[in-house]
């Protein structure tokens, strides 16, 4: 049976936190609320209080700074989708966003809400993990920062404690050179949830040498996987020396992290095979975005 | 039967559909939108088990829900079997046994939908669990759990002709197949609801249905009350494809309203629509086919299983592929309908021809490849043209008997204008294939069997062609009737009980009548849903609406016209023979204006009727005056479709790149409506070919993807927006103004075209649906060999 | 009670928290043009405009709409005069059963406001947030392109 709940609007982020603390476990945050409303109707969650934070302007921003891109948690997916001209990383995130749900859902849904839903198949999350992004979390005693990989704790489970909300996603930018990120997924129709996905972020210094490679894999474990360690051998390689073979080798190593399950969308075996292909293609895209030829 | 072919004024024009404004303004009302005053809301209590018998029902907790009114259980329901059209359902409304997870067990009524849902959840039912079976072949075994008192398997249905052994001996090459088809779900957009209101011992039933008369019949059978006390008012439905005919939940609503003494409404939610009503059967074809080295088919030998689920009762599927590949002289088809503990299966658009028909297409393609013939040429060589014999006449079971009985009951003099029976009266695939391959540039694009047209990285493109056929309605479930009334102001209204599920019948039936009566479309109104004013009609099923109902509507209009002309001849044209007169633009005119140049408006003629005390009426009512020829014995519709796909051979993902549909439905009554319907069929068929399938739990038979997130429907960008439809219009000798049926052959053609294109791109045949994972598995299996 | 602004007028709905906007529009306000089918944001039948942007009203709580401008299909035509998008959907028959049509038309309205001169490919992607089970897609694309023409040349369209 669906739960009954009351509706309240928070007027500031700190008020939202206070409301959460006061109302207890039944209180749930509605950012855009698209997942929450769905899960409530499907009886996956039984809220007693809905705290609506959608219109908190303080958390609705995209800031491009010298050393970081800051995305407010209440930035709508539609806004992120339209941020492509602000920075090439945002252009890549915009491309990912276009794959998410429907235009209608993207209007209401927020970046923060998508992360807090902590779906293993989420589209933005692997890119954030690959980019080495961090989550800024607001609680009663102030803000704290958590690496994006640590933010995801399980299916629909995050590092948020009882009375905390997500404030911002911070994407660090390299002090020297450029970072590019790419994302690939297996889907069926044009609107779909990823059967498996992979994202790669590659930083290349002004000397033309790869300084850092981040890898995020989705829908192959209960959480988004950080498989960046697999790419260590790429770091220090000159962009000009990257070969398809090297990227394939990285993808193969990274894919070993995957622990996929079989469900109605795909079998474990298919996911295992595809995660490698998705990552290889994402790596290739990233190298090409850097101007590399492979 | 087309007596004097004059230029057509209404038929053939892409006129806007009658309900267009209602549809774009959101004011059209479907079943879910209908309410009556003081009604209560019902919710069905569903079976949580695959097979179980009710031991005890405890409503004490449900009764505590504020707003609870009452419950309907099997104890309150007359234990009569009722049947839906084409045996899509046979059983009691409620009998205390659940035959699949989600089966109807009881219904509660409450003051609000929320209260009803809550109360339904709190009804506690104690069950005795019964053994269950989900696999068709297991269900056939003698020791299988029995799902129905009639047994699990129906009498086999079959068609056989020629000498199978001789056909096999004559074959230079043969191919075998064993193909399993998953169930397609109607996945209706729009859900459905039913409102029932009793007035004394009469009941008024309002719901979305394609078969208003059949629904009234079903209520009559289930309740045992006279047909005259049942009024069905069928509303337009959302996409239906055969789902919303007469459904058990509608009759539950009728009984629930009676039980609680109040008007009641039951609305199904999306999951109920997908998991408890109906679906396309799971099917399995085993068989073989052979041909000579010149590509002439020598035999067909197929054994086909269809799974009816809990309440389907079909023993046959309309497999008109038999007729389409009719050049071959020896064949044997057997069909077995089998019940399982899964949701009821029934007719979905293109039943049989989307599955068995696709198996035959695949076998034909494999033969064509073996003998090195292009698929277009192979079809032209082996498929039927008008005048050829229809193989379906060689049925070994009831079809033949029923058709013979129908024919023999018609006096000889009424049969003299009939086309030759058991031979195709018009159309065929040849012209479609020729016209289509030219437009598609097939000869240039075809690179050979299993040769991609383009190859880049992991991407392979391939082209394919497929063909489909279907019947144009059937006669032996009852003659579809229509009534036309001309009013004193010269306007007309046609009353025919058909569906308004998006195929445009509310417009095209009126166009036929307008054409016959010399009126504009605006001057002809229509009632399609009310069984109190419409004569019995089979409804919109089996592609019969334009053909059989259209015939009846035209005959009814002809009857009105004849009466009108008779009055006009007597009163305005000096008593000439009425056959010298005709109608034109709302006026009666003489065939030879030199003799009689006056033009008499219909209103003047009808005014004469008004002042004529012997007429006893001020309006003219018309009905068909002759029996319709048995169209299953000669009329078929055909589709040929061409497509290009792009397959990622690493991931198995398929993209539809190009699509061309060519259709032979005789005269096209409304090209805009028909093009839309044909494209829709291609999209529904493509979806079935690459994504759509119901996933059932192996332990319980419960549907696991009863939602649109995981039941994948094609979206706008998944299908080429420049897909085109071409028509070949070979007029039918019987259908209204030469029209035939349309909606089912194109879905079969599309499925086969996509399957073949994927083969040509990848070199592997993939069982449907060709999901990314299945494509990859098939490629892996092929490379392992 | 909660006050909403729907189709330019203030209306009242109950202040219950636990109900969707789609439910409130249909049940309290009789705006049946907000069609509900999947209830999970997949089909787009219940699409409405919130401050001009498309949203599926089945995934939005009624209370979330307080203070926002809601447009439903009932608010599109000006009396008897259809909106050009509605006109174009009739001309090109961008529908069959019509159930999904209000949602498509409202999606098209928001889409064309952002992209008044789209290509067919862009329309095709833009209209993919709605499902037409009947499969009228190619005609829906034609209808949206036709609507763009009508909206860009209102004087010509009147002829």
Account of the 3D structure:
The complex is a heterotrimer of chains A (294), B (785) and C (159). Helices cover 32% and strands 26% of the residues of chain A. Chain A has 294 residues and is an alpha+beta fold. Chain A folds into three domains: 6-52, 2-Layer Sandwich (Uridine Diphospho-n-acetylenolpyruvylglucosamine Reductase, domain 2); 57-172, Uridine Diphospho-n-acetylenolpyruvylglucosamine Reductase, domain 3; 178-289, 2-Layer Sandwich (Enolase-like, domain 1). Chain A has a five-stranded antiparallel sheet with strand order 4-5-10-6-7. In chain A, a hairpin with a 2-residue loop joins β6 and β7. Chain A starts with 5 loop residues before the first strand and ends in a 5-residue tail after the last helix. Chain B folds into three domains: 20-27 and 478-622, 2-Layer Sandwich (Aldehyde Oxidoreductase, domain 4); 34-130 and 186-277, Alpha-Beta Complex (Aldehyde Oxidoreductase, domain 3); 283-472 and 635-784, Aldehyde oxidase/xanthine dehydrogenase, molybdopterin binding domain (Aldehyde Oxidoreductase, domain 4, 2-Layer Sandwich). Helix content of chain B is 28%, strand content 23%. In chain B, α9 links the parallel β16 and β17. Chain C is 36% helix and 13% strand. Chain C has helices at 21-28, 84-91, 101-114, 120-126, 137-152, 154-158; strands at residues 2-6, 9-13, 47-50, 53-56, 69-71. A five-stranded mixed sheet of chain C has the order 2-1-5-3-4, with helices on both faces. Chain C is globular, with a radius of gyration of 15 Å. The relative contact order of chain C is 0.16. The mean pLDDT of chain C is 95. The chains are: A alpha+beta (294), B alpha+beta (785), C alpha+beta (159). At the B-C interface, α1 and α18 of B face α2, α3, α4 and α5 of C.
